[in-house]
Amino acid sequence: MNKMDRKTEILVIQAEEAMTSIPTVLQNQLLATKFFVPVASGPLICRPRLAGLLNESLKHPLTLVSAPAGFGKTTLAASWAQSLAAKQLQVAWISLDEEDNDPRLFWSYVITALHIHRPERFSSLLAVLQSSQGPPLKYILMALINLLAESTEQFVLILDDYQTIIKQEIHSTIVYLLEHLPPQLRIFMLTRADPSWPLSQLRARQQVLEVRASQLRCTVEETKAFFKEVIGIQLPNQVIQKVTAQTEGWLVGLQLLGLSLPERADPLKLLEEASGNQRYILDYLTEEVLQQQAQEVQMFLLSTCILERLTASLCDAVMQQRGSQQMLERLEQANLFVVSLDSKREWYRYHALFAEALLYRLEQAYGDLVLTLHHRASLWYAEHNQTTRAILHAFRAHQWEWATDLIEMKSIALNAFTWGVSKQNLLLLRDWLHQIPVEMVYARPRFCLACIWMVLTIIPQTILETWLNAAETMLTAQLMTQIHEENAPPMPIPQARQELENMLGEAITYRAFLQCHMRDGEAALALCQRAQGLLSADNFGARTHIAVTQILASYLSSVNNAAAAVQMGLEAGSLNQAAGHMDQAISLMGLTAKLMVGTGQLCKIEQLIQQAIRLGSKPGAFTVGWPMVWQAEVLREWNQLDAALSCIEEAIKLCEQIKWSISLVYLQTSYAILLRICLSRGDYDRACSALQEFEHIGRSMSQFWGAYSFFTTIDQVRLWLACGELERATHWAEKLDEEERQGTPFAREREEVACARVFLAKDQPALALERLKSALQRAATGQRWGHVIEILILQALAQQRHHEEMLALSALSEAVRLAEPEGYIRSFVEEGAPMASLLAMLREEQRKAGPTPYLDTLLAAFPQPSKAHERHSRQLGHTTIPLLPESLSERELEVLRLLAYGASNQEVAQQLVIAVDTVKRHVSHIFAKLGVQNRVQAVRRAQEYGLLDEKST
What we know:
By secondary structure, this protein is mainly alpha-helical. 65% of the residues lie in helices and 4% in strands. A 5-stranded parallel beta sheet has the order 2-3-4-1-5, sandwiched between helices. The longest helix is centred in the middle third of the chain and has 25 residues, at 461-485.
């Protein structure tokens, strides 16, 4: 076996030792092997031109090595990284994969990679990052930048396989780091595809060095050196030139070609036979390599290529033989695309392209064996308590009985909200579940119920109902048979009968849950009563589901009793807390807080959330993120916008780490509240991003959840209007009226309020008032005073537009009366200048009866005019409160000032280092807020409002 050189071995040992100084909670989340610089298992050719190019990269904040697979990116970077030790540079290496798309986890890896070299410098930052009450990522990055700036060492951060990162939030944080990067850090990125960054801006500022496939291709000289020094074959110059041309310097192609060559074989003839694209060459040459291996090596390669990671005992189980450790070391020594993942040579992986080619060969030559190999892998994973991987391999093996056994083993944990499964694996399981024979689903009601709960959020309603029908039919028949066999039913009820009744009760509970998201809440409540009569007293999981169903049915459906729903939520949370089921209790508190937003009980929400946070204070209690979502909403309404943003960012971080089947709902709702907060802050770009993330999550979920109805239906319309997209909002409202309305009565009410906003924007107050009338009546009947406040505010604005000033003030007075005890602010402020004018009139009227502290507070929260604006108002003889436009964000004010100087869109983009499309979007927002059509009008209106200094014009 080829040994790693001594320097590399020391680095690996240091990395393993440094991992022990990381907090335990973080060690459990991170794979130590991701920090190891890959070790070449054979000789490498010297490529001084590339080494010199990489040395130049140290002059740039970012080096982007972007090329398709097989061009030697990782090998090149690993070799170069080992040479940096002599230059006193600290190399922080991370091998990324799809699971690192969690922003918090990604930066945990980055900071840990730096911590490995200087634990004393980065340990405190790691601790803050992992704190359940830690600050938003932006502040973590600011702290990281400051720590690096104070350092006397220089670090090179190498991110391998960055193409696996698709989360926009991670891209944004990397760009932020690059914009403020101190000279103590250089970032080196290896990727198969360019990241979705503003690369053009980085190029313009000369902040990036790009290394492309054209530079990575082997030259004629390098091809000659490769065959001579690595393969040990001396080829004529003419042959070398043709080989280089035909492979286009593709390194993995050269390596496969070299391994494919028997003695005295003609490489050109081999290449002629393998003519075609790289995919075909890869498959062909892999087969040639296999044919030269001993039979036992061929079978080992083919049998183990189904595994993402290899270890001896797993390979022994899949091969049903011993000696896998020796075989793995033999493959590494032969340079057969095997990569060691640790210094102890316990875990390995194949080169991704080689594994793909092997799998293709396996399926072509031994198709029947594929299923057997997956089954053996499944058995090994199950024996080692890695149930999720065991289930996935069971599905790939088409071992439906075994897969159902595994799922049933987890059914109790599933029902109790405790089985951990990531979103990625949930979606994969959903796809496999479609392949299980229908007759097997129908014959195993326990399995059927387990699957329903596991994929409840992401499976179509029609399939859920089919499974429920099958389960209920089978369970009812079995239960009737059981009862008939009992001539004189003994006391207590036999265990077999109790189990059947429990399962039937669960099936009915799920049916009620589906029903409550439709139109018939009364039917859902009746089903809940029936289910309660079947469930045993200790079946807390199912009884919690019943409580949730009753709560939602009372709130969403024609039952329309929000007060009863809130009370049920409080009682169910207390019962779970008393029984020691803290996660369920916290979840129910979060749901109850969500409903309280509608009932307008902001102060009680704050009390309930603090109680939930105390319950979830233990390490790893990510469920507390769900109630924190509503804490963020309360802070937003109280006009504490910075605190609200920090809170929702922390809530999203925690919700992303929850591994329940219901966690997608929590995460999607978190982005709905982030959207609201960004609207309040005037950050429309980020609001658009939050809406996109909300919709992205929603596309993988079942349609019946109706997550839009609570907030996003109205907030989406508000965002369109804020961005000047009135035509889009109008089209949405018209389409809504043309189609048959779907969803619950609550959802339809929210749509009516959203339509009213569109009509107000179109200056059609009569139509707006018509829409608001029924919505107000329904909200008041349901005792949802938060929604009543919202509707009354819109009603007042519509009546003002309709020149019905007394009616407008009456509606506004009622809204103020309801809002004052709970401290509402943003609901008024976000309606802008017309609302400020109405509030000023109301204050003038009410001051006749005494002080008006709440109205004073509301008016003080509106954007205040500048001194220049006040002077201008006096010149015009204005004596009432000036009507201010909706406030402009800081970035919009920067764009406005440049427009006043006469800058073009391109010049604004260059000055602010943003894309031209972003400038256009800002200009559109500015025009919409100022109520103008062009730049000249915008500048004039801005001068009127004192938004521009005299120097700006």
